[in-house]
Write a structure and sequence with these properties.
Blueprint lengths: L15 H24 L6 H15 L34 H29 L6 H13 L4 H6 L3 H16 L3 H15 L6 H6 L3 H22 L1 H14 L20 H7 L5 H20 L5 H18 L11 H10 L7 H14 L5 H9 L5 H14 L2 H22 L2
Helix pairs in contact: 1-4, 1-15, 3-4, 3-6, 3-14, 6-7, 7-9, 9-10, 12-13, 12-18, 13-14, 13-18, 15-18, 16-17
C-alpha cells in the first residue's frame, strides 16, 4: 500500500478545472435566481417570514408550530422550540426590514465560509490568486448552491458554516470544538447528525462527548424555557408527520426537487413501503462510504472520506438542492486539493465533472423542458435524458460521480499505483 502521489506533499493541482466549476456554479446561481423570481416573486423571504412569525408567537405565548405566512400557509416552523430564540429580535422588526438585516447576516456567513475554505486550501500548500478567492466568495454568496437559501431567507448557510468549522477543528485536534460544531446542525435539522459517524471513525471520543452534551443540553434548555408540551408538539409534528416519505409512494414526479436516491427506488419499487426505499438507498451508499473509511491516514484520504460522508447523508435522506450547501466545505477544498498527479489525474477529472454537474439547480423537469426548446438537438437530447432524470436529478448524478471519484482515488492509493 502506498499513496505517494496524493500525499500532503503532492504537486499543487491546476486551478483551471476548479475555476471552471466555480464559474458554472455562479452562472447557474444567476439563472436560478431569475427562475425563482420569475415564477414566484411573492416567495421572496418566505422562510424568514416563518421564523419571524414563530418568534412573534413565542413572545405572545402563542402556537409556535401553527403560524404561517399568508403567501404559504403550508409553511410552518420546523425546528426545536429553543431554535426560535435567535429570531426573537426580528419579531420586533417589520418583514421587509427584518429580511434585509437577515439577508446581510446570511451573506456575511457565506463570506465567512469562503474565508474558511481558502485559508484551509492555502494551509495545505496551494496558493490561491485573487481570482480564486473572488470565485470562492461568489460561490459561497450567490451560486446555485446558495442563491435559493438567500432568496427564501433560510438558515442553511449558518449550518454549513458550523459543519465546516467542525471538519477543520477535527483536523486541528480540537475535538471539543468539532463535536460542538457538528451538534448544532444536527440539533436544528436532525439529519446532519449522521456526520457524527465521522467523529466515530476518527476515534474522536471527546468530540463525540461534546456533540452528545451539546445536543442534549439544547433540548433540555428547550424544556426549561418552553415546557414539555411544545417539545412534544415538535417531536410529533416535525419528526413524525413531516419526513416527506409519503411523497415517494408510487414514484416521485420528475418535477419534484428531491435529490435523494429514494427517487430512483420509488420508480423501481413503486408499491414498496418507505422502509424498502430507505434500505435500498442505504445499501447503495454504505459501501462507498465504508470503503473510503478503510484508511484515512493521509490528508487527501480524510478529505475525500469526509466528502463521501456528507454526500451519503444528502443522498440517503429526503433532501433538496438547497442542502448541497452542507457539502461545500469538503467539495470546495477538493476542487483544489484533489490529487492531480498520475495515476490520480482521471479520478480528479471525474470529480470535477461531478462537481460541475452538481451545480445544476433546476429540477429535472425544468431542464428537460428547456432542452426541448433548443433547435435541432434539444428534443432528441431531452428524450434520451428523460429516463435518467426520472430516476435521478442532475445534482444527484453529479454528487454520485464525485463520490465515485473519491472511491477511485482510495482504490488506486490502496493498490499502490
Amino acid at each position: 500500500m502506498g499513496e505517494a502521489a496524493p500525499s500532503d506533499a503532492s504537486t499543487p493541482t491546476p486551478h483551471s478545472g476548479a475555476r471552471l466549476v466555480l464559474v458554472l456554479a455562479v452562472l447557474a446561481g444567476g439563472g436560478h435566481l431569475f427562475s425563482v423570481w420569475s415564477r414566484a416573486p411573492s416567495f421572496l423571504g418566505v422562510d424568514f417570514a416563518v421564523y419571524r412569525l414563530a418568534a412573534q408567537a413565542a413572545l405572545d405565548g402563542g402556537p409556535v408550530y401553527a403560524v404561517a405566512p399568508a403567501v404559504a400557509p403550508e409553511f410552518t416552523f420546523l425546528y426545536p422550540p429553543i431554535a426560535v430564540l435567535p429570531f426573537l429580535p426580528f419579531a420586533l422588526l417589520s418583514q421587509p426590514v427584518g429580511f434585509a438585516v437577515f439577508t446581510g447576516l446570511n451573506l456575511a456567513a457565506g463570506l465567512a465560509l469562503a474565508v474558511l475554505v481558502w485559508r484551509y486550501v492555502e494551509a495545505h500548500g496551494v496558493d490561491l490568486t485573487r481570482v480564486d478567492r473572488l470565485l470562492l466568495a461568489a460561490v459561497c454568496l450567490v451560486s446555485s448552491y446558495r442563491i435559493g437559501s438567500v432568496f427564501y431567507g433560510q438558515v442553511n448557510v449558518y449550518l454549513a458554516l458550523s459543519l465546516a468549522v467542525g471538519f477543520v477543528a477535527l483536523e486541528r485536534d480540537r475535538e471539543w470544538l468539532s463535536g460542538t460544531a457538528f451538534a448544532i446542525p444536527a440539533f436544528v435539522k436532525v439529519f446532519p447528525a449522521v456526520v457524527g459517524v465521522w467523529l466515530l471513525r476518527r476515534r474522536a471520543w471527546r468530540g463525540v462527548a461534546a456533540a452528545v452534551v451539546t445536543g442534549i443540553g439544547l433540548h433540555l434548555l428547550g424544556l426549561l424555557v418552553f415546557g414539555p408540551d411544545l417539545v412534544a408538539t415538535y417531536l410529533d409534528v416535525v419528526l413524525h408527520e413531516r419526513t416527506g416519505i409519503e411523497a415517494f409512494r408510487g414514484g416521485l414526479p420528475i418535477g419534484a426537487t428531491y435529490m435523494t436516491l429514494r427517487r430512483a427506488t420509488s420508480h423501481l419499487f413503486p408499491t414498496a413501503g418507505s422502509a424498502v426505499h430507505a434500505a435500498a438507498a442505504f445499501a447503495l451508499l454504505a459501501p462507498p462510504v465504508a470503503f473510503c473509511y478503510r484508511d484515512v491516514s493521509t490528508h487527501s484520504r480524510r478529505l475525500t472520506a469526509a466528502f463521501t460522508t456528507v454526500v451519503g447523508l444528502l443522498l440517503f435522506f429526503p433532501s433538496y438542492q438547497v442542502y448541497v450547501v452542507y457539502a461545500l466545505f469538503p467539495l470546495l477544498p477538493l476542487l483544489y486539493l484533489f490529487p492531480a498527479t498520475d495515476p490520480f489525474r482521471r479520478p480528479r477529472q471525474l470529480f470535477l465533472a461531478g462537481a460541475a454537474l452538481s451545480t445544476a439547480a433546476a429540477s429535472a423537469g425544468t431542464l428537460l423542458a428547456w432542452l426541448a426548446t433548443v433547435p435541432a438537438v434539444g428534443g432528441g437530447l431531452a428524450t434520451v435524458l428523460r429516463p435518467l432524470f426520472t430516476l435521478a436529478s442532475p445534482t444527484t448524478c453529479g454528487l454520485v460521480l464525485a463520490m465515485l471519484a473519491c472511491v477511485w482515488l482510495h482504490s488506486l492509493a490502496e493498490s499502490g499505483q
